[in-house]
């Protein structure tokens, strides 16, 4: 068998510290639970009206949005109408 030369790993930033312990380098210790930055839903103060304060302005009711193209009307086939 041939003797192998000793390994020479490249010098990394972690090798330059005297107090270089794994527990201080572990990133999992630095992670924390997520922080709520903004509330998901805005709330109005009690007694306030949404939208304009002018009583003359009325808004029309909107239908709920359906994703995709409108559905075609289903028709019963002519050869087997009673399925």
Secondary structure layout:
Layout: H1 22-25
Polypeptide structure, described:
This protein has 83 residues and is low in regular secondary structure. The chain is built from one helix and no strands. The chain has one helix at 22-25. The longest helix has 4 residues, at 22-25. The radius of gyration is 34 Å and the shape is elongated.
Order of helices and strands: H
Strand content: under 5%
Helical percent range?
A: under 10%
- Total number of helices: 1
Biggest sheet character = none
Mean of the pLDDT scores? 76
Calculate Rg over CA atoms. Answer: 34 Å
Please count the beta strands (DSSP E, at least 2 residues each).
0
Determine the structural class based on helices, strands and strand pairing: little secondary structure
What sort of overall outline do the alpha carbons produce when their principal axes are compared? Answer: elongated
**Amino- and carboxy-terminal Cα gap:** 82 Å
Give the uncertain stretches in residue-range form: none
């Amino acid at each position: 068998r041939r003797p192998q030369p000793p390994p020479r790993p490249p010098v990394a930033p972690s090798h330059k510290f005297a107090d270089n312990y794994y527990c201080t380098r572990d990133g999992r210790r630095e992670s924390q639970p997520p922080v709520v930055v903004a509330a998901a839903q805005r709330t109005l103060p009690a007694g306030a009206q949404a939208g304009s304060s002018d009583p003359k302005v009325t808004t029309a009711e909107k239908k709920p949005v359906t994703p995709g193209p409108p559905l075609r009307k289903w028709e019963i086939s002519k050869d087997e109408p009673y399925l």
